[in-house]
């Protein structure tokens, strides 16, 4: 992992409050595992003082190009959206443990289930699974039609099902409604999104799966304990153990984290 100034090559808006930034620099060559994240220092100085964790949405290693996709939430991400090509931002990474893909064989079917800004890391994952010869089915959940992003990119990997809460596109309801309607079976599922969605996906999806967690972070490297989560542990008297999402995760086997 490196802390390097990466140059902004492109910044564009994909949907209301959703932006895609492409960054270039040598450390991008190390960003090989989907599901890992980077810790972004939005600008020099102490404001904002903390870095912002953002998932690796895609990597083009030969071009040393990293894609991040983010929602403008608070001060940090709003400042990031104002940055233009040619400017540099300091990016620390890759961090965390990503989605395991070793067990996937050619011909396996992988189900990707993403909601909101949980969708970006599934794209880099989907690209790697498709390269391994897996069949990809993606379910992408949004509030309404105008919020949809990355649909065409996922369509290049396989079948895509869109859900919207207001029914303005695709299946009306949540990603779990689409999982329930799936005619095809799948070998492994991978999911990333808000915690209520992850909980519902774990209850609905079948077979082995992996969930990627989001938590507020301080250091991003396991030193400050800001991001601790609880895991089930039948061997301990409390029935629980503690893990750090930044360094032990953000990806965990489905069913292990108390979400
Ligand atoms: C591993 C990981 C990957 C993520 N990947 C993405 C992504 O690809 N795209 C995306 O849009 N968002 C992602 N997030 C959420 C993103 O980090 C927050 O939306 C962002 O930090 C908000 O910063 P802000 O300055 O705009 O908001 P503010 O609310 O002003 O931030 C204040 C502080 O809270 C932290 N914070 C606020 N919301 C979150 C949150 N949901 N998760 C973690 N920290 C938070 C900030 O880092 C900052 O330290 C990810 C979070 C984690 C933990
Ligand atoms: S953010 Fe500091 S330990 Fe995870």
Structure in words:
The protein has a 7-stranded antiparallel beta sheet. A 7-stranded mixed beta sheet has the order 11-10-9-8-12-13-16, sandwiched between helices. A two-stranded antiparallel ribbon has the order 14-15. Strand 12 (188-192), helix 5 (195-204) and strand 13 form a beta-alpha-beta unit. The chain has 259 residues and is an alpha/beta fold. It has 6 helices and 16 strands. The two termini are 28 Å apart. Helices cover 17% and strands 36% of the residues. The protein binds flavin-adenine dinucleotide (FAD) and FE2/S2 (inorganic) cluster (FES). Residues 37, 48, 50, 52-55, 69-71, 73-77, 117, 120, 214-217, 250 line the site of flavin-adenine dinucleotide.
Give the secondary structure arrangement, pairings included.
Layout (H helix, E strand, L loop, with lengths): L1 E14 L2 E7 L12 E5 L10 E4 L2 E3 L4 E7 L3 H7 L6 E8 L13 E7 L4 H12 L3 E8 L8 H5 L2 E7 L6 E2 L2 H7 L6 E5 L2 H10 L4 E4 L15 E5 L7 E5 H4 L2 E3 L6
Parallel strand pairs: 8-9, 8-12, 9-10, 10-11, 12-13
Antiparallel strand pairs: 1-2, 1-7, 2-6, 3-4, 3-7, 5-6, 13-16, 14-15
Helix pairs in contact: 4-5
The structure holds flavin-adenine dinucleotide and FE2/S2 (inorganic) cluster (FES).
Flavin-adenine dinucleotide (FAD) binds next to β4, β6 and α1.
Q: How many strands, which pairing sense, and closed or not: the largest β-sheet? A: 7 strands, antiparallel
Shape: globular
CA radius of gyration is 18 Å
Mean pLDDT: 96
Distance between the termini: 28 Å
| Helix-residue proportion | 10-25%
Provide a count of the helices.
6
Strand order in space, largest sheet: 4-3-7-1-2-6-5
Q: Secondary-structure element order, as H and E?
A: EEEEEEHEEHEHEEHEHEEEHE
- How many beta-strand elements? 16
What share of residues are in beta strands?
35-45%
- Unreliable stretches (pLDDT < 50, length at least 5) are none
- Associated small molecules: flavin-adenine dinucleotide, FE2/S2 (inorganic) cluster
Structural class: alpha/beta
């Amino acid at each position: 992992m490196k802390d390097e100034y990466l140059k902004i090559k492109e910044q564009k808006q994909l949907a209301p409050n959703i932006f895609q930034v492409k960054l270039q620099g040598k450390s991008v060559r190390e960003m090989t595992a989907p599901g890992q994240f980077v810790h972004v220092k939005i600008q020099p100085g102490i404001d904002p003082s903390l870095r912002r964790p953002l998932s690796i949405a895609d990597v083009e290693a030969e071009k040393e190009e990293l894609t991040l996709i983010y929602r403008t939430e608070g001060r940090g991400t709003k400042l990031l959206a104002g940055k233009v090509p040619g400017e540099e931002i300091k990016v620390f990474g890759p961090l965390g443990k990503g989605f395991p893909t070793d067990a996937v064989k050619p011909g396996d079917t992988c189900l990707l289930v993403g909601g909101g800004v949980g969708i970006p890391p599934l794209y880099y994952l989907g690209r790697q699974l498709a390269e391994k010869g897996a069949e990809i089915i993606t379910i992408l959940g949004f509030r309404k039609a105008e919020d949809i992003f990355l649909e065409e990119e996922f369509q290049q990997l396989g079948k895509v099902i869109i859900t919207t809460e207001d029914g303005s596109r695709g299946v009306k309801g949540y990603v779990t409604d689409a999982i329930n309607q799936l005619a095809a079976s799948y070998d492994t599922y991978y999911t990333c999104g808000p915690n209520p969605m992850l909980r519902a996906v774990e209850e609905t999806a079948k077979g082995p799966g992996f969930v990627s967690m989001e938590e507020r972070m301080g250091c991003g490297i396991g030193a400050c304990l800001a991001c601790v989560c609880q895991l089930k542990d039948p061997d301990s008297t409390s029935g629980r153990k503690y893990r750090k999402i930044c360094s032990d995760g953000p990806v965990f086997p489905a069913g292990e984290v108390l979400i």
